[in-house]
Design goal:
The complex is a heterodimer of chains A (384) and B (184).
Chain A: E1 12-14, H1 17-20, E2 26-30, E3 38-42, E4 52-57, H2 62-72, H3 81-84, E5 90-95, H4 100-103, H5 106-112, E6 119-122, H6 130-141, E7 146-148, E8 155-158, E9 161-167, H7 170-175, E10 189-194, E11 199-202, E12 205-208, E13 215-219, H8 225-234, E14 237-238, H9 244-248, E15 256-257, E16 263-265, H10 277-283, E17 287-290, H11 305-315, E18 335-337, E19 353-358, E20 361-366, E21 381-383
Helix pairs in contact in A: 5-6, 10-11
Chain B: E1 16-20, H1 28-35, E2 39-48, E3 51-58, E4 61-63, E5 68-69, E6 75-80, H2 81-90, E7 103-107, E8 120-123, H3 125-137, H4 146-172
Antiparallel strand pairs in B: 1-4, 2-3, 2-7, 3-6, 4-5, 7-8
The chains are: A alpha/beta (384), B alpha+beta (184).
């Protein structure tokens, strides 16, 4: 069994995470919740307000504690929209699929933030687990909640930020019902892009402006091979073409890879069916993140060795090379795991990850929290 | 301002009762299960390789609206999936592979985290899935008032029967991990 590399302590520099943030930064938190998922996207300021997207909460309390920390740091203002005069602070709450390790904490969020959540997305796949019943009862309490079961291709815009649903494909969604679809393949996978605005407004005129320098992030849920096979065809590479119609369709004027993203949250804790080489090559991430136990490897053995090798091969191709070089360490490939250890340190893991995204630039921070601990923003260490 | 997708529920609608959920009110074993605190609600949550992840919780009760209510969200344990299946098969309770979303009632006075603690077992998947389906659909739009259901009954009866039969076929089939009942 291969190991998850420990990060070098010398490269984790304590720093002032909160002070480092600019109001236009998109901040992605991948929390250390073991072999589970809990993610918070802190959106850039828009109309003088930051809002969040929450994607899964696999354990209780950890996401609410982070929201509290963001409020304390004045990065987020919670409270009912009418009371604060602002928009709903939780712009979107996503239950990627109804596995316990993804939805266990969502009922608590729904209960704790009445009238503060604008939208709730779930895959439409129902499950018999207690946490599913609990979550759906909590959803039922919300009257003013836009409840959607999105499928691939759906797009939503929140201020300057765009969200595209990559999966489940509608083809799969319809197959829940007749041929059988693995619960993991019902996962909602998202591509988040900031800014997605394309119209440059100046006084009295407006122009379309392509934006090749947006921050892009793909959150893979637990989607597996079948689901990704649909995503690969639903979101193709548009090849350059000199035809009139291609000229008309701006996107086809050059290589346009609809699945490309700077940051990838790997599906299903890097299980052997969560990734494949073609997919990761298509996404071509500069930063690859895995939510998994990492240190003890739990019962599942996540991340699976074969999935790690796929990720490494996609990032740093070695197969078929004339001369075989030793693999570059994962951390130098910008491949990180929430539960990974730190060299020379105690049992404390590197912990939850925050990625500060400013266009194409990313800065990685770690919070040294264990699975059951709150994220303390003051303990942030910048990966150097 | 968003639009309403469903009418507001009252706070008291969510109040728990002490009434245990009975997966089959006409079945003596179901009544026995509901009356003993040694029965556990056990869900197949994940299947990975040779392992099955079971989520187990104390037996659910109902709230004022008839929703399944769990005092605790439960714990999880990974067990050898073959051993679990063999155990169930030996008791003539399960003659098919394990599927995600299967639900078993397991009698275990010291908790069901080890198979050797299991003293009795029942496959209650069909009715548990029906309850999950109801939980899902109760959030999709509003609830059906009885008068509307009655008005539509004249055209719906035959379809309803076909749908129920289809559901039963799916529940008893060997289809892998399907949400088939969602369609009907």
């Amino acid at each position: 069994m291969a190991k998850v590399d420990a990060l070098a302590t010398s490269r984790l520099k304590p720093g002032n995470f909160v002070a480092s943030l600019d109001k236009d930064d998109l901040v992605y938190f991948l929390l250390n919740v073991g072999d589970a998922d809990a993610q918070v996207v802190l959106l850039p300021e828009w109309n003088n307000q930051r809002r969040v997207i929450i994607v899964d909460a696999g354990v209780e309390k950890k996401v609410p504690a982070l929201l509290d920390a963001l409020v304390a740091a004045q990065l987020l203002k919670t409270g009912p929209a009418e009371a604060t005069g602002k928009s709903f602070p939780i712009a979107l709450l996503v239950a990627t699929h109804p596995h316990d390790d993804h939805i266990r904490g969502l009922a608590q969020i729904l209960d704790d933030y009445p009238d503060q959540i604008a939208e709730f997305w779930e895959s439409g796949y129902f499950h018999t687990a207690p946490s599913y019943h609990h979550m759906m009862a909590a959803v039922e309490k919300h009257t003013m909640l836009l409840h959607t079961q999105p499928t691939s291709g759906m797009q939503r815009w929140i201020g300057h930020t765009g969200i595209t649903v990559l999966s489940p494909s509608i083809h799969l969604r319809n197959r829940y019902d007749t041929y059988g679809v693995d619960i993991n393949d019902s996962s909602i996978s998202l591509k988040i892009e900031h800014p997605s605005s394309r119209v440059l407004q100046t006084q009295g005129s407006r122009n379309y402006q392509s934006n090749q320098k947006a921050a892009t992030l793909i959150l893979g849920g637990d989607a597996q091979t079948l689901s990704w096979s649909f995503a690969l065809t639903d979101f193709p590479v548009l090849q350059p073409s000199a035809t009139e119609i291609a000229k008309f369709l701006q996107a086809a004027k050059g290589d346009w890879n609809l699945l490309n993203a700077a940051v990838l949250k790997v599906s299903h804790h890097a299980s052997k069916r969560g990734v494949n080489l073609e997919l990761v090559e298509r996404i071509s991430p500069s930063l690859t993140l895995v939510s998994c136990d990492g240190m003890t490897r739990g019962k599942y053995g996540f991340p699976h060795d074969v999935a790690q090798e796929v990720l490494r091969e996609a990032i740093e191709p070695r197969a078929g090379a004339r001369t075989q070089k030793a693999r570059t360490p994962d951390s130098d490939l910008n491949l990180f795991y929430t539960g990974q250890g730190v060299t020379g340190a105690s049992a404390a893991p590197a912990g939850s990850i925050a990625v500060v995204m400013k266009g194409l630039d990313q800065t990685v921070w770690r919070f040294r929290d264990k699975r059951g601990e709150k994220v303390d923003l003051s303990k942030a260490c910048k990966w150097d | 301002m968003l639009f309403e997708q469903r009418s507001a529920r009252k706070e008291e609608d969510f109040a728990p009762t002490t009434m245990p959920w009975m997966h089959d009110s006409s079945d003596a074993k179901s009544q026995a299960i509901a009356q003993s605190c040694a029965w556990w609600y056990v869900v197949v949550d994940e299947l990975v390789g040779d392992w099955v992840k079971l989520v187990f919780a104390p037996w659910p009760t109902l709230d004022m609206m008839g929703r399944l209510t769990f005092k605790k969200l439960g714990s999880s344990i990974w067990l050898d999936s073959v051993a679990v299946r063999e155990y169930a098969k030996d008791r003539r309770e399960l003659d098919r592979p394990l599927r995600i979303s299967d639900v078993f009632a397991i009698y275990a006075e010291k908790g069901p985290s080890q198979i050797d603690r299991w003293k009795d077992f029942a496959d209650i998947t069909p009715t548990a899935r029906e309850s999950a389906k109801v939980a899902a659909f109760a959030t999709r739009g509003d609830l059906m008032p009885p008068e509307l259901a009655e008005k539509l009954a004249a055209t719906g009866t035959e379809d309803d029967q076909n749908q129920m039969a289809a559901q039963q076929r799916v529940a008893n089939s060997e289809l892998p991990n399907t949400n088939a009942a969602a369609a009907v």
